[in-house]
Amino acid sequence: MTTRTLLFDSPFLLGFEHTRNLIERAAKAATEGYPPYNVEARDGGGVRITLAVAGFSPDQLEVSVEGSQLTVAGRRDAPASDGDRAFLHRGIAARGFLRAFVLADGMEVEAATLEHGLLHVDLSRPDPEYPVKRIPIRTA
Question: What angle do CA 98, 80, 74 make, to 5 degrees?
Answer without folding.
Answer: 15
